């Protein structure tokens, strides 16, 4: 998700996306343990997306 796309989302949508992505990371860890990960770079991308979402969410809360 790009920064411009994230800025268009409401606070509730951002929180829902964060929860969904955290579940994805949880599942990636199990896939990694079982050697079923098809794209290991996806884990890092997901973490970065969560960080972007949290940053924008904090900015909206302060505004």
What would you say this structure looks like, in words?
- With 63 residues, the protein is mostly helical.
- The chain has one domain: Helix Hairpins, CATH 1.10.287.
- It is 79% helix and 0% strand.
- It is built from three helices and no strands.
- The protein has helices at residues 3-7, 11-33, 41-62.
- Helix 2 (11-33) packs antiparallel against helix 3.
- The longest helix is centred in the middle third of the chain and has 23 residues, at 11-33.
- The radius of gyration is 13 Å and the shape is elongated.
- The mean pLDDT is 92.
In brief:
The chain is mainly alpha-helical.
Q: Supply Rg.
A: 13 Å
Query: Would you report the number of β strands?
Result: 0
Name the helicity range: over 70%
Order of SSEs, N→C? HHH
**What form results from the Cα inertia axes?**
elongated
For the sheet with most strands, the description reads:
none
Low-confidence segments, ≥5 residues, pLDDT <50? none
CATH fold annotation: Helix Hairpins
Please write the CATH class name.
Answer: Mainly Alpha
State the end-to-end distance. Answer: 22 Å
The figure for the number of domains is: 1
* Mean pLDDT figure: 92
Structural class: mainly alpha
Tell me the β content: under 5%
- The CATH architecture category equals Orthogonal Bundle
Oligomer: single chain
